[in-house]
């Protein structure tokens, strides 16, 4: 979680100081959702992500250097600079891709689930999406497909209360996004998305269910984004009291306190881990900055499987 | 006369139409208090209230279909697509419904779909595209893309008053970069009319949108000082103003088309074909096009620069035609 937080905060500081290409959506404050879920996954399980996907990639054991390089749109990035922040993907670690189209990953995850079912492996797909995405047709279509065919997909709604500036209560009439699960005959579970252990537990059950062939679950993690929607958004629509309330329930502080209280780790041990992460982050920035840009003449290389098809 | 930015001109056109006609209302994601990502509608909600300025859930197919339904019954919805790339999620409602209600049922759909399009911002494949041909190739729709503040205001007003569905493209790089004279009073720029922006006698350059400004910049360069360029700004992609293009080519005998959309099956192909059909005998060189290349739009700055037609590409194309 600390790695994800530091990644986001490092980026935030970098782009205040120097030009960085493109838009960027950060998951600061939402780290426990990605980590609590993905800690249950194996290397060969899949994840589909959203426009806010840095945390999903790191939690799925993605490569920090490659992620940072993608932020700089460098050749060494996990997508060779083609996609940037919004399109992070790395099939080698089961990260099937972030997407700039809200909700688009949901049916994709069902399709990936079908491939697992046909291959008869015990893999699962975790499909992350936001509260706002749950109003897209793709949400309903994708979950319905996964439920009628009992596909091994875990739908994880990270409900951070907002889609850009729009508060979730103004665009849905049910109390929880998870309530929508009943329309598809699958379990719908609400969990404190800032409590990594709670997320871990509900995810474990859902993932076991999926591995046993019992079909999908919809998990709604109640959480909050600490920063604006994207790097250009000062988020003046987020009321001060609301922010303060949620900042108190910071997932990282929360978990640190737990570790210390339960004597699982001492403050010093935690500091040592944090130092290692800081060093890795500095190295990642160095790696990204010193990496080459993609060569201009490589612009067409990935358009088709057959590379010379372009006229 | 007053000068406004491209964005201010669009705002003024929208505001005037909302005030003029009670049937006009706007809908889209985050257009209320937030004012949209580029702040085109900032302050509209406060001025007109929630009945006229509607924040929708994220569901393009849903709210575009909703707007078509409202238009069928006499309202005049103006839909904002947050970035035009996302219109793909509502494609069916546009190309099968909005475009074909008149043809199937004799029913009018006075609908406008507008929003930011275009590349150059390192925004990657889903926040940069040119979508004009998705719609220009769908009979039943009108497609406009103003390049100047004057046309932006005149065309948004014409679009809102039009009784057919109009797709109105705003190039996001023009919003705050381009200023120009815009009368305060009510006027429209007719849909379907191109404009000769600069007269010349050696070559006709047909273009539109952000590329108009690039072309005007390039032809001022010293290396081209000996060439007299006539520049035609299409303003409307469909219906295409064949007459203005043909008259210009008859005069100059040469054609270059420049657009930001990718090459194959892009507008340049159609424009060139019309010139071949109606003015072939006047041509003294084969027409050429300078466009983006046939790939998705990459995030990387070096690749995006390679993707878009560059000043050099345009200059080379002009030379090639003149040296033929
Ligand atoms: C199809 C589509 N419509 C609109 C957008 C613009 N947009 C990007 S993110 C976003 C909000 C998404 O909200 P939510 O699903 O709650 O995710 P969050 O940003 O809160 O993580 C919107 C409207 C988009 N990218 N794609
Ligand atoms: Mg949200």
How is this structure best described in words?
The complex is a heterodimer of chains A (311) and B (324). Chain A is α/β, with parallel strands linked by helices. Chain A has a single domain (2-291), classed as 3-Layer(aba) Sandwich (Rossmann fold). Helices cover 40% and strands 10% of the residues of chain A. Chain A has helices spanning 2-17, 31-38, 54-59, 64-71, 105-119, 137-148, 196-211, 240-248, 251-261, 267-290; strands at 46-48, 125-130, 153-159, 162-163, 166-167, 188-192, 217-222. In chain A, strands 1-2-3-7-6 form a five-stranded parallel β-sheet, sandwiched between helices. The longest helix of chain A is centred in the C-terminal third of the chain and has 24 residues, at 267-290. Chain A starts with a helix and ends in a 21-residue tail after the last helix. Chain B contains twelve helices and 14 strands. Chain B folds into two domains: 2-182, Rossmann fold (3-Layer(aba) Sandwich), CATH 3.40.50.970; 195-322, 3-Layer(aba) Sandwich (Rossmann fold), CATH 3.40.50. In chain B, the strands form three sheets. In chain B, strands 3-2-4-5-7-6-12 form a seven-stranded mixed β-sheet, sandwiched between helices. Chain B has a five-stranded mixed β-sheet with strand order 9-11-10-13-14, sandwiched between helices. By secondary structure, chain B is of the alpha/beta class. The longest helix of chain B has 15 residues, at 6-20. The model of chain B has no long low-confidence stretch (mean pLDDT 98). At the A-B interface, loops of A face helix 11 of B. Bound molecules: thiamine diphosphate (TPP) and magnesium ion. Magnesium ion binds at residues 130-132, 160, 162-163 of chain A.
Which residues of chain A sit in consecutive blocks of at least 5 with pLDDT less than 50? none
Mean pLDDT score of chain A, rounded?
Answer: 96
The shape of chain B, in one word, is: globular
- Specify Rg of chain A, calculated over alpha carbons: 19 Å
CATH architecture of chain A: 3-Layer(aba) Sandwich
Enumerate how many helices of chain A there are, as a single number. Answer: 10
Largest sheet of chain B: 7 strands, mixed
CATH superfamily of the largest domain in chain B: Thiamin diphosphate (ThDP)-binding fold, Pyr/PP domains
Helix fraction bin of chain B: 25-40%
The geometry of chain A reads as globular
If you average the pLDDT of chain B, what whole number results?
98
Oligomer: heterodimer
CATH-assigned fold name of chain A: Rossmann fold
- Separation of termini of chain B? 43 Å
How many individual helices of chain B? 12
Structural domain tally of chain A: 1
CATH level-two architecture of the largest domain in chain B: 3-Layer(aba) Sandwich
Largest sheet of chain A: 5 strands, parallel
